[in-house]
Amino acid sequence: MQTNQSNNTLSGSIQNGIAVPYDFLIMDVIKEAWKRTSGLKGSVLGAGVLVFFALIVIGAVSMFFVGLLPSMNESLLSLISIIFSCIISILSYPFFAGILMMGLHRAVDAPVSYKMAFAYFGFTLPIIIASICMAIIVSLGFFLLIIPGIYLSIAYMFTLPLIIDKNMDFWLAMETSRKATTQHWFKLFFTGALMVIIYLISVIPLGLGLIWTIPMFIALQGVLYRRIFGIDSV
Questions:
Q1: What HEC string does the chain produce?
Q2: CA–CA separation, 68 and 115 (whole Å)
Q3: Are strands 14-15 and 18-19 parallel, antiparallel or unpaired?
Q4: How many Å apart are CA 72 and CA 108, to the nearest integer?
Q5: Are 159 and 134 in contact (CB under 8 A)?
Q6: For residue 157, is it within any domain?
Q7: Over the chain, what is the mean pLDDT?
Q8: Quick one: residue 50, left, alpha or beta (phi over 0 = left, psi -120 to 50 = alpha)?
Q9: At CA 145, angle to CA 79 and CA 19, rounded to 5?
Q10: What is the pLDDT of residue 36?
Q11: N or C: which end of the chain has fewer CB within 10 A?
Q12: Contact 222, 105 (CB under 8 A)
């Protein structure tokens, strides 16, 4: 499908399942992400609030049914609570993937709506499988040696949008993301580190800065994704 990119917008592409060589300047993508925050804030924050309350309701309903179960010892009740918490966390991934897709749309000046957080349930299974696999592999990386865990945290950062945008299965998306990010892993790491610093600074004034930095993070994901892979689904 065609994108709504302007002629001066940098865009990467995938050939034979591998991202073509690309490059970027850290401050360029940071500045572009900041500019594209305009027009994204309302949708991202609105979707975030709706998803938060949806998960709260799911959690409350789950605990209500747990309360209907016969009396049980405290350890078993704690185990059930942990299981439900994990299930709720897993259910959040399709919503989060939808919010990430807002960044991709904004990166090519396509329409963005809070409804996008609920628009990709058709990809729920590969998204959940990928999320669980990434969590396990990254956790093992941190457990064995911290450095592999840090590497994999960056390496898999584009997995979810690749599943949706390129219609990849979970493992192909993970490997495509890993191979692509390895080309400029350190640039991506320092871009993320700079974004974290901006985020932490934004928390200082009573958290009001998050109104801008949370959408900026989503926009940054979209800008980087477009520059590395190009965007097909808009």
A1: CCCCCCCCCCCCCEECCEECCCCCCHHHHHHHHHHHCCCCHHHHHHHHHHHHHHHHHHHHHHHHHHHCCCCCCHHHHHHHHHHHHHHHHHHHHHHHHHHHHHHHHHHCCCCCCHHHHHCCHHHHHHHHHHHHHHHHHHHHHHHHCHHHHHHHHHHCCCHHHHHHHCCCCHHHHHHHHHHHHHHCHHHHHHHHHHHHHHHHHHHCCCCCCHHHHHHHHHHHHHHHHHHHHCCCCC
A2: 34
A3: antiparallel
A4: 54
A5: yes
A6: yes
A7: 88
A8: alpha
A9: 100
A10: 95
A11: N
A12: yes
Average pLDDT over residues 221-226: 96
The type of residue at 87 is: I
What range defines the domain where residue 201 resides? 15-229
42 in a domain, yes or no?
Answer: yes
Tens digits of per-residue pLDDT, 165-192?
999 999 999 999 999 999 999 999 999 9
pLDDT tens digits, one per residue of 36-80: 999 899 999 999 999 888 888 877 777 776 666 666 666 776 777
Tell me, what amino acid is at 122? G
Close Cβ partners of 212 (under 8 Å, ≥ 6 residues apart): 37, 41, 202
